[in-house]
């Protein structure tokens, strides 16, 4: 008698498994999809191509990378971890540049799309700056343009990726007019970072950030 119940139970179980499998297949057949098109807009693609040229063989460029693939909460409490992770789950980095050998993230880049500053945009910027600061990922911000000066972008990246060789540039001191030279900070918060300083030091102590800001009046190439 027990063997009969066992056989019946196995048949019922088999029936449920088969039914569930075919039900899933039917659900999939009812779902249809279409290709959405390009991952990036024309302006975003223009910047992406400039970034590829600037980085060269010294990095791997990725776009629209989900934050959870790059950073993770430090919280040990499960509830706090879930809350922290949920805050970044639907957000992403516009672009990241990774080490070509290890794919470790070297720098993140945020591209301003030119939209008016609203609550959503402000909240995203706050989140992005907090995530990058707390995780130690350098963050570069720039604005949308149809094309970019690759040489300037290369200099901007060279501040964080030493392997990138910048184009030679002559700058002049805005205080005394003397030629400026490139030096590397040996101590302090910006240790290891490059900066321009007046060649007349110590007579002239003017210094300038190595980072380059894209000026609106610049000719684009």
Q: What would your notes on this structure say?
A:
- This protein has 2 domains: 42-158, 3-Layer(aba) Sandwich (Trna Endonuclease, Chain: A, domain 1); 170-213, no CATH class.
- The termini are far apart.
- It has 5 helices and 7 strands; from the N terminus they run ααβαββαβαβββ.
- With 221 residues, it is an alpha+beta fold.
Question: Whole-number radius of gyration?
Answer: 26 Å
Query: What's the CATH architecture of the largest domain?
Result: 3-Layer(aba) Sandwich
Quick one: biggest sheet?
4 strands, mixed
Order of helices and strands: HHEHEEHEHEEE
Strand order of the largest sheet: 1-2-3-4
Instruction: Count the DSSP helices.
Output: 5
Number of strands: 7
Number of domains: 2
CATH structural class of the largest domain: Alpha Beta
Shape: elongated
- What is the CATH topology assignment of the largest domain? Trna Endonuclease, Chain: A, domain 1
The average pLDDT score comes to: 81
Q: Alpha-carbon distance between the termini?
A: 86 Å
Domain DUF2726: 38-157
Protein name: DUF2726 domain-containing protein
Organism: Vibrio zhanjiangensis
